């Protein structure tokens, strides 16, 4: 008998029919003798609809009110799921973030969990109930509702699992685990049975949408075992945990891609000291998260500087650059949205020299131009033209020996559809 | 400078545009120097939608979960209204039932308020904010969310007004006050400037939908002055308070009608002692609220017994009667849904004999058959055929000198539309 925390995202609870499926899944676990806690997101598009209502009333809605508004979405799904479980003759009890003891700091819209008080949930379990916890929300020290921002519900699930010392935190989604690459663009991608926290963090941070980075960070910090699996099948997914007991570790664990960044180029910049400092401190001051920086070779003392940043920061980035253009004597600012970052990730990289050389050679042989490069001890990222995303992922996947013998059959999606999927919700 | 509590129902906050109107109204009061508290219902049809979702998952949803589900509706409208006020440059702060200190008993779905702790709301007012309180909800001693049932938001408003010792509790709706009769069926109805608690209670209890009976009861108990007025104009409405300072009180204050009751007739009942007791104790045991009872003259030791009860109790009433038919040796059970109760209400009735005689004579002259009669010291109710509802109200309105010189111009509605309007939400 185990204690299992199961997190279901918005797609899994989007309709009464889907909520029934989730209820059945939870009851099956209960029948198998486990203690069961569910953590749920808001139904389908609820959050978007609430954001739309707020936008109709206030261009810049106060953060406190926004949290109070958005937190209702999870309260609806938590109650409905509890009702569905009770309808099948099992005890259920729902808990808001407050009642589940999710205590956060006061930063509305992106609060961080500071403590989990699990007494009430534990009490419900001891009385034989399936506990249903609203994801994405907590309460600050003053008793005000907060929300956790993107990845919030995954983080709630991991935090609840930690608080209850659960055996595993199962995160259900529409994919059946963590793959060596996105199977939608790389048909020979393999599902991983297990992956360590570091590799998972780098993959999540590089665009793999299956698990939210914050949740993985939390899990690593508190040694919570995550099981990423499909809401629509009973197949085992991928375990994320401390040590992978594989005898021989692959050098590269997986390849992620991210089409959500944009490249900003400042043309005609005088190549003199202090210019870059001025530019990037202005960007930092304006909350633009600069990822990679590329400075071209100077000609006649004039050069181009490019950087990449999240698409969400584009407007702020352009405003900042336009403002200081006269200041640094530069000519113009151009934005390229059609780029992709492709990242090789693997703890094994640390002890394997030559990864970068092999990657560059592979891309070169496939006529894929590298626009920028960045690295960490266990990651190598390159920026390529957006149109070459799938090709880049596939040739690297083959070159580093990740290809499966079987071919993934799902219809291939367009780059836009992938981008939309990768960047979805919380 | 006064402290004003303003309650807005679901229709008044049904869309972002309407919420903007409410925000403007509140700000105008603030600009006039008043302290302002708003109490809001859920937007438009939200509650019905949530009830529908619950019904899709559970035929008999657990009361605790139902409360948690339904309470989200008011949380959405409270946040949106606060945002709309802030967008216009005024401070606003929203409060759930819990935060507004609405402490209730543990009876989920129809909780009663036991205490109001107004410190947080008062604090917000002192800091210059317009406070926005979610109606219809509270929290029990264990911290679980409760809802107040029908009339809940009106009751919240009166309770908040009592807790803050407000000067007035304004209840906004789509009608501009309390009328001597429903102007939709009685075009010569007059708006009352003022009405006392007792008369208002009898009118509300007899089908006048403008104010919820529970709220009026609460107001009477704690001497809260209610101002019932239109959400769509600035005209004064009707004040409900202890004493009406009128020099000469009218005998009849108003006429209410109620088409929501049904008449159940048990035919062929042996006229012997104990039968009625058996019948009505069975009905009471099955939570049927019997209103009026009519026993026909016996012929050959066989009689008919009829009673009226709320339409919502119809199914339970019929089941109960069918079950005991063999027991009391009766023939059959027939239900008539097309009836109306018409009630004359007036504190002045106490000191004016002959009201009943005059009413019966008036109805007789108009060929309106009386199916049942009931009275209280300040009310006389008759049941008539549903098709004669408007005619009955009008002829009594004229006979008791209530007719206005001007004629109400709104299009007349059908009996069904009126019934739907009279029985609407919370």
From TrEMBL, chains A, B:
Q: What class of enzyme is it?
A: transferase
* Gene3D superfamilies noted in UniProt: Acetylglutamate kinase-like, VC0802-like
Keywords in alphabetical order, please: Amino-acid biosynthesis, ATP-binding, Diaminopimelate biosynthesis, Kinase, Lysine biosynthesis, Nucleotide-binding, Transferase
UniProt-annotated binding residues for substrate: 47, 74
GO BP, one example?
lysine biosynthetic process via diaminopimelate
Q: Spell out the InterPro entries in the cross-references.
A: AceGlu_kinase-like_sf, ACT-like_dom_sf, ACT_Aspartokinase, ACT_dom, AKii-LysC-BS, Asp/Glu/Uridylate_kinase, Asp_kin_monofn, Asp_kinase
ACT domain boundaries:
264-349
Binding residue positions for ATP: 7-10, 179, 184
User: Which pathway does the database say it acts in?
Assistant: Amino-acid biosynthesis; L-threonine biosynthesis; L-threonine from L-aspartate: step 1/5; Amino-acid biosynthesis; L-lysine biosynthesis via DAP pathway; (S)-tetrahydrodipicolinate from L-aspartate: step 1/4; Amino-acid biosynthesis; L-methionine biosynthesis via de novo pathway; L-homoserine from L-aspartate: step 1/3
**Pfam families listed in its UniProt record:** AA_kinase, ACT_9
Q: Which reaction does it catalyse?
A: L-aspartate + ATP = 4-phospho-L-aspartate + ADP
What top-level branch of life does the organism fall under?
Bacteria
Molecular function, one GO term: ATP binding
Function (record text): Catalyzes the phosphorylation of the beta-carboxyl group of aspartic acid with ATP to yield 4-phospho-L-aspartate, which is involved in the branched biosynthetic pathway leading to the biosynthesis of amino acids lysine, threonine, isoleucine and methionine.
The family this protein is said to belong to: Belongs to the aspartokinase family.
Q: What is this protein called?
A: Aspartokinase
**Lineage of origin:** Bacteria, Bacillati, Actinomycetota, Coriobacteriia, Coriobacteriales
């Amino acid at each position: 008998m185990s204690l299992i925390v199961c997190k279901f995202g918005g797609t899994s609870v989007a309709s009464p029919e889907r909520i029934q499926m989730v209820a059945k899944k939870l009851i099956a676990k209960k029948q198998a003798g486990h203690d069961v806690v569910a953590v749920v997101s808001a139904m389908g598009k609820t959050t978007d609809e609430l954001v739309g209502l707020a936008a109709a009333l206030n261009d810049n809605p106060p953060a406190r009110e926004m949290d109070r508004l958005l937190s209702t979405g999870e309260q609806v799904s938590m109650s409905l799921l509890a009702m569905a479980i009770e309808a099948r003759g099992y005890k259920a009890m729902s808990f808001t973030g407050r009642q589940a003891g999710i205590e956060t700091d006061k930063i509305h819209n992106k609060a961080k969990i500071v403590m989990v008080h699990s007494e009430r949930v534990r009490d419900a379990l001891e009385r034989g109930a399936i506990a249903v916890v609203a994801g994405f929300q907590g309460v600050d020290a003053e008793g005000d509702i907060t929300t956790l921002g993107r990845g919030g519900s995954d983080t709630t699930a991991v935090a609840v699992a930690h608080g209850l010392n659960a055996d595993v935190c199962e995160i259900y989604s529409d994919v059946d685990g963590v793959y060596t690459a996105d199977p939608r663009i790389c048909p020979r991608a393999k599902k991983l049975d297990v992956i360590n926290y570091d590799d998972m963090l780098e993959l999540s941070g590089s665009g793999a949408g299956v698990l939210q980075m914050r949740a993985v960070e939390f899990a690593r910090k508190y040694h919570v075992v995550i099981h990423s699996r499909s809401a629509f099948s009973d197949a085992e997914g991928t375990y994320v945990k401390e040590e992978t007991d594989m005898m021989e570790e692959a050098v590269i664990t997986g390849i992620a891609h991210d089409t959500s960044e944009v490249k900003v180029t400042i043309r005609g910049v005088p190549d003199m000291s202090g210019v870059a400092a001025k530019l990037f401190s202005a960007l930092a001051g304006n909350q633009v998260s600069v990822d990679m920086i590329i400075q071209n070779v100077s000609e006649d003392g004039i050069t181009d500087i490019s950087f990449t940043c999240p698409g969400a920061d584009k407007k702020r980035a352009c405003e900042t650059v336009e403002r200081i253009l006269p200041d640094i004597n530069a000519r113009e600012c151009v934005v390229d949205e059609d780029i992709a970052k492709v990242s090789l990730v693997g703890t094994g990289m640390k002890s394997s020299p030559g990864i970068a050389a092999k990657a560059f050679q592979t891309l070169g042989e496939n006529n894929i131009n590298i626009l920028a490069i960045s690295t960490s001890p266990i990651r190598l990222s390159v920026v390529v033209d957006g149109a070459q995303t799938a090709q880049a992922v596939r040739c690297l996947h083959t070159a580093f020996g990740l290809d499966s013998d079987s071919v993934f059959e799902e219809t291939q999606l367009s780059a836009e559809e992938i981008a939309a999927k990768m960047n979805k919700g919380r």
